[in-house]
Description:
The structure is a single chain. The protein is mostly helical. It is built from 66 helices and no strands. It comes from Rhynchospora pubera.
Amino acid sequence: xxxxxxxxxxxxxxxxxxxxxxxxxxxxxxxxxxxxxxxxxxxxxxxxxxxxxxxxxxxxxxxxxxxxxxxxxxxxxxxxxxxxxxxxxxxxxxxxxxxxxxxxxxxxxxxxxxxxxxxxxxxxxxxxxxxxxxxxxxxxxxxxxxxxxxxxxxxxxxxxxxxxxxxxxxxxxxxxxxxxxxxxxxxxxxxxxxxxxxxxxxxxxxxxxxxxxxxxxxxxxxxxxxxxxxxxxxxxxxxxxxxxxxxxxxxxxxxxxxxxxxxxxxxxxxxxxxxxxxxxxxxxxxxxxxxxxxxxxxxxxxxxxxxxxxxxxxxxxxxxxxxxxxxxxxxxxxxxxxxxxxxxxxxxxxxxxxxxxxxxxxxxxxxxxxxxxxxxxxxxxxxxxxxxxxxxxxxxxxxxxxxxxxxxxxxxxxxxxxxxxxxxxxxxxxxxxxxxxxxxxxxxxxxxxxxxxxxxxxxxxxxxxxxxxxxxxxxxxxxxxxxxxxxxxxxxxxxxxxxxxxxxxxxxxxxxxxxxxxxxxxxxxxxxxxxxxxxxxxxxxxxxxxxxxxxxxxxxxxxxxxxxxxxxxxxxxxxxxxxxxxxxxxxxxxxxxxxxxxxxxxxxxxxxxxxxxxxxxxxxxxxxxxxxxxxxxxxxxxxxxxxxxxxxxxxxxxxxxxxxxxxxxxxxxxxxxxxxxxxxxxxxxxxxxxxxxxxxxxxxxxxxxxxxxxxxxxxxxxxxxxxxxxxxxxxxxxxxxxxxxxxxxxxxxxxxxxxxxxxxxxxxxxxxxxxxxxxxxxxxxxxxxxxxxxxxxxxxxxxxxxxxxxxxxxxxxxxxxxxxxxxxxxxxxxxxxxxxxxxxxxxxxxxxxxxxxxxxxxxxxxxxxxxxxxxxxxxxxxxxxxxxxxxxxxxxxxxxxxxxxxxxxxxxxxxxxxxxxxxxxxxxxxxxxxxxxxxxxxxxxxxxxxxxxxxxxxxxxxxxxxxxxxxxxxxxxxxxxxxxxxxxxxxxxxxxxxxxxxxxxxxxxxxxxxxxxxxxxxxxxxxxxxxxxxxxxxxxxxxxxxxxxxxxxxxxxxxxxxxxxxxxxxxxxxxxxxxxxxxxxxxxxxxxxxxxxxxxxxxxxxxxxxxxxxxxxxxxxxxxxxxxxxxxxxxxxxxxxxxxxxxxxxxxxxxxxxxxxxxxxxxxxxxxxxxxxxxxxxxxxxxxxxxxxxxxxxxxxxxxxxxxxxxxxxxxx
Length: 1213
């Protein structure tokens, strides 16, 4: 025997080391005879099978499969250990495309089947082989036959090798019936095998499929799979399934679906039953812990487990009910519906299994749930209690009771006797009392569930109520005293139902009991009494209650002043119910008592709260009785507090009384007593916030009236409340914001500084409440209000710069600035123009100190907008505002200097005159901030060379402004260049150009060196003799400008005599503009002389002016008189020396035919003769003018009312 064995081992080694073709040859010729003649060891058999199938995988060959079949005969014992590998491989080749390969596989399987020793399986081999050959057709048939077969003998390993592939196929079928049968066979296998370990090779194949079946959507399939897993654990032990329990518990936590969790729960229940009590006790704490897991899916899964444990553990599980029931009750109140359903289902199963055996354990837990604060627990507890009572009474409880009264049910006397027999009469009464009370639950679903249980187990409601009345009243009173508000409410409603059902039979006993209950030391019990009273009064008829008023009114009055707030709240509700029956009697007997109690320090707080409770239910009726008492001046701190508290309760009902309450509170807000101030302020804040949309108009009208009140305290307090309302109210007040903004801005010029501050703060709050996109719609409102405030301030100041006090506060522009900026940035062209103009007006009335911190946020947007393509009106408005900003902002604009300069220079070339003029004016002001003006002047000169018409005029205006504000900084080279260019303009025919050029040269001349000045003067003198009148005019215009800006240089110049000659000639020129300008120049020189040291040439200048006053042109005469007036105002004594020469000339002008000349002569005479300085001067003047004229002129004001005061006057002033 050893020799063939050695040959077989050698052949096996040769096969393992050969190529594919050599293996095939060995299988065909060498191995089959050796296999037939040898006895294989298990090791060699296993190795040989592995080699055979390696070759099968590489090359389909029939001899290879025949070798396997041959091994079945020669070594059945050893081959059985390899069958888990062999049969699946042979099954695979049954579907091969080659017929002979299929035949060889079938033959091999038949040879394997022929060694089966189990007679029952042996008879089924042909059927089983057909199932392996054609699983689609015969799997279900094979499973049916297997289930129908009665096994007397145990199943050996070869039998398992044929059975397992068929069962595995059945587990994978789609049909539920097939999967259920396959799972059932898997569960039966462990009890039929000779050795349970024979199943071990198939566990890895079957268990995954059984797990899949365990989570099948069909409950019956899951149930069979769960029992199969339990059988496997029970038959093979836990060690062979090391990960099964952990997998089941993880699946219980799955988020996928409750089907999977249900299957896992059922499987785990079977496994726990199989593993014994000790294992269950070890794992139970973890299960209970997971019932309160934070994830709903986990709670659902573990609560579902309790649904199956009673069925799998049986009577043993009732030992753990006390531990498990709290988790079930907690699950009944879960926020997740599936968790609640799982807990309720588990509870139903507990009741079904243990209603008779564990009633003392189940009933107390369910009774506690009936009175739970959570309505879901109450509902579930009622349903479970119903199941329990149905079980005890012997009824299904499934009858559908529709229609009829609440007293009609489906129970019988026998059911009632069964319940009494099982529970005892006392316990039965307690249970029925609880059910009756819960029939009035606040939750509809709880009420319906309780009513169903009651009607199912109670045959006669009136008789039963009579039987349980003592217990029921005790239950109701205890519940009315409960700390749970819902339980008190339920008890009250149940009490009301009793009154409705039994009426006058119970009132005489109930009301005294409730009245006595107010003396109970427990606040919760006193509150319960008030709730009970409300329900009793609401349920009883009005005529029934009239007999008990003497007892009800004092009881409620006492309750309204109770020390407990909860009691007072419930008493307020009871008062409302009482008022429905007693009407004004209730108010007349209760409210005055509470008002008197307000005056007592000990009872004031509770009495106030009592009033609040009454107001909360009967506002419109009670309020007129309370307010007159509380608003009587002087307002105390407590009364102010009371008003606020009552307003909070009265809410919108207070609106009609705003005019009564608010003025008193506003005045009290300024009280000297700090406590009164604080209380009044809080109360006023409450009052203004409780008003609803309908009362908004009343409230805001009252606040506006207060803001316009003559008393500063009223204005100040109203401003605060306006701001408070707009900041804190939830109402839409945007439509009313305009009136408030206007009023508050006007108040910024109030005489009371505290009111100004309050108005400013309120203004910020009002504008802050307006949505950003709507701000620009208030530009006109703000501008009009600023204008009104400015006019108001102007009337107070009577001259000087106008600043509004509110805009001199720190951060004063913060509230209003967003209105203009929003319009400037996102408004239409018209809106942008309005915004820019409004900003300018605002800046104009703001102090420089306040403006400083707003320079950047204002200037930036202005520069950005003016750079865009907007209409000229927008640009002109912005330029005007920037000019004001430059005047006020000063050095704070330094960062914007380059941008502003570039912007202004560019605008000089605009096509619109207004834009050019505004930019020229602004550029001149801006130059005062610059340290280097040469580049700017150079640019302007370059523009001047290449421009004409309006642009040239604008550039000249800009040059004039730059030289005026920064002429000292212009270098001599730039100055010389400018003079040359300007002299060319002097000879142009354009009047405006000549005039502007002359003014610029006059400004420049004051900074010239002597030689440069002399050269310029000589040139001008030469021009003055030109044959062209406009050249002569240009020279005289320049003389006039120079005499204003540098008269000293002119008078000290060696060419001064020539200048005087030219001016004298100019007075005789045939062109009146030249004569008028010459008169103006002479007047300025004369003014300079009389203001400086005495000079003999003064008379000459005066004579020249007198000569001009006799000129043919009224304009020249008027100009000369204006110059004389300016000299007289500056130094009257200098003219009095020559009054004999001057007086007749003035007297002559007083008779002039031209009205403007006469008016100028009057003003001139007033100052020359000093008519306002006394009667002596009037008398002296009569030497030259009539006495009537002298006295008339003496009454004129000293200040000139002429619209075009001369430059001479401005210099003199």
